[in-house]
Design brief:
228 residues; alpha+beta; SH3 type barrels; Conserved hypothetical protein from pyrococcus furiosus pfu- 392566-001, ParB domain; 2 domains; six-stranded antiparallel β-sheet; five-stranded mixed β-sheet; 6 helices; 11 strands; disordered C terminus; ParB/Sulfiredoxin_sf; Chromosome partitioning protein, ParB family
């Protein structure tokens, strides 16, 4: 990534920071609380407003040095499998869409383009509603073009709920620093993710709550930021 960050670590922070989670630590200790920070090298976690679930004791803030598992109790994302043909382009996207070879290869080999495009569902009373295309892209036009080119019938999308004004603001945020068509949306997942996180509290963008938690096992999957 252009900022020099490890993309796995970035996703790790975006997913769990500020979320209420259950953390399984060493010595069979289990804590529920709000995650402030995750150490990318060791997988340690700092939590606040915690309860130790094994004994049911309220303990305040906790540093869990060795983590076996983090479970997010309420996901900030709703992921749905959609048919790419049922997802319309953003009305604000005016550039010619040419799918990238990288996304084409991933779509052919894995049936997955490497990340979740972001789309919004249009209600039936929306002026752009089309029964054949009930969703509209906010970010990920080249990835979706690659899906359509290779004929994928389904792909996971992040689905958000937002107004036309909010969708326009998020689109502009994701594309703000792009100087050319070649630098279009797929290199700006980080900008959009930060924009969605900020807008969720300041602009009223609503993300549906998932019914299942998200799990990782940091001790096995952590990537050293310095070695990336």
């Amino acid at each position: 990534m252009s900022n020099g960050h490890n993309p796995f670590n970035d996703r790790l922070d975006w997913t769990f920071q500020g979320s209420r989670c259950v953390v399984h630590g060493e010595n069979e200790k289990v804590y529920e609380g709000y995650v402030e920070m995750v150490h990318h090298n060791r997988g340690s976690v700092i939590m606040h407003n915690c309860r130790e679930l094994t004994e049911g004791q309220k303990v305040g803030s906790v540093f869990v040095r060795i983590v076996d598992e983090i479970i997010q109790l309420e996901s900030h994302k709703e992921i749905q499998e959609l048919n790419p043909e049922r997802v319309a382009n953003s009305p604000h996207y005016e550039a010619k869409i040419i799918p990238r070879d990288y996304h084409m290869r991933l779509a052919y080999r894995n049936g997955y383009t490497g990340s979740f495009p972001v789309a919004r569902k249009l209600e039936k009373d929306h002026p752009r509603f089309d029964p054949s295309q009930q969703y509209e892209l906010v970010n990920g036009h080249k990835r979706v073009a690659a899906m359509k080119r290779v004929g994928l019938q389904k792909h996971p999308f992040e689905v958000i709920q937002c107004t036309d004004e909010e969708a326009k603001e998020l689109y502009e945020l994701a594309h703000r620093d792009q100087d050319s068509e070649d630098s279009e949306d797929d290199s700006t997942d980080e900008m959009l993710e930060e924009g969605l996180s900020s807008s969720r509290t300041t602009q009223g963008v609503r993300r549906p709550t998932a019914t299942t938690g998200q799990r990782i096992q940091p001790r096995e999957h952590m990537i050293d930021r310095q070695s990336s």
